[in-house]
Amino acid sequence: MDRSQLLKGTTALLILGVLKDGELYGYEIAQRIRERSAAFIDPGEGWLYPALHRLEKQGALQASWREGGLGPRRRYYRITDGGLRMFDAQSAEWEQFAHSVRLVTAGAGNV
Amino acid sequence: MDRSQLLKGTTALLILGVLKDGELYGYEIAQRIRERSAAFIDPGEGWLYPALHRLEKQGALQASWREGGLGPRRRYYRITDGGLRMFDAQSAEWEQFAHSVRLVTAGAGNV
DNA sequence: TGACCTACATCACATGGTGAGGTAGATCGT
DNA sequence: ACGATCTACCTCACCATGTGATGTAGGTCA
């Protein structure tokens, strides 16, 4: 069916989440997300690259081209101070939202 | 800015979540969601009613008009067996997704 | 030569939430 | 009688953004 819209609004959080542990290039970011989520989240290139561009434009990331040695050149991304603040904010909002969903779906509770 | 797309993909879950504890009408569903989420989630009528229509069309809900006594007539919704199955499926998927997000954003951690 | 991996990117398309607007019945104060 | 304010339903233009397909290039290996 949907395999859904759940990602909406969390992509920035996922990207910032892996980048806060160190500089990475795009393709590698996708791999990290896949690994850490035990392959449950498989970043599509259709949203990953646009999302990286958005975050760079917003000042959350800083990017630079570099020769990778093997294969094509790579674009490395580093998180900025603003990016870290954005991560904290989005992370908190996500936790709050997730908690709310659990409260609503948990049922009457008192029963 | 964002105050988010987070809802995307969770609206059905929220609605089914409150309806699995008993029959309710639309306006009341909104109130329940607001209450249970401690007002963190405030259902907009712009998505609530369309979502109810979608779920009804999909067979997850069964609806009927009834005079409320006071005020305008109300449309009551009851969850079907299919709706319960949908709730279980979406609930499981949500938990898995939420867990994945936490894994990704938790950081290197295990290293 | 062909297959396949890395690595980046763009684009038409679809989903569906946001916010505003509209109808109507009921209640209450002035 | 009038306006304000609830309840209760509905619709619609707009927009953000994920999906899936496609394109470009360099590399390795059979």
What this model shows, in words?
- Two copies of one chain form a homodimer.
- In chain A, helix 1 packs across helix 2 and helix 1 (about 10-20) packs across helix 4 (about 80-105).
- Helices cover about 50% and strands about 15% of the residues of chain A.
- Chain A has four helices and three strands.
- Chain A has a three-stranded antiparallel β-sheet.
- The first copy, chain A, is elongated, with a radius of gyration of 16 Å.
- The two termini of chain A are about 30 Å apart.
- Chain A is an alpha+beta fold and about 110 residues long.
- The longest helix of chain A is centred in the C-terminal third of the chain and has 25 residues, at about 80-105.
- Chain A binds a DNA duplex (30 and 30 nucleotides) through helix 2 and helix 3.
Shape of chain A: elongated
Oligomer: homodimer
The largest sheet of chain A is:
3 strands, antiparallel
- Proportion in helices of chain A: 40-55%
Protein chain pair with the most extensive contact, residues per chain: A-B, 39 and 38 residues
- Could you tell me how far the N terminus lies from the C terminus of chain A, measured between alpha carbons in angstroms? 32 Å
Summarize the structure.
The structure is a homodimer of 111-residue chains. Chain A has 111 residues and is of the alpha+beta class.
Task: Give the topology.
The structure is a homodimer of 111-residue chains.
Chain A: H1 11-19, E1 24-25, H2 26-36, H3 45-57, E2 61-66, E3 74-79, H4 81-105
Antiparallel strand pairs in A: 1-3, 2-3
Chain A binds a DNA duplex (30 and 30 nucleotides) through residues 2, 4-5, 7-9, 11, 25-28, 44-47, 49-51, 53-54, 68, 70-75.
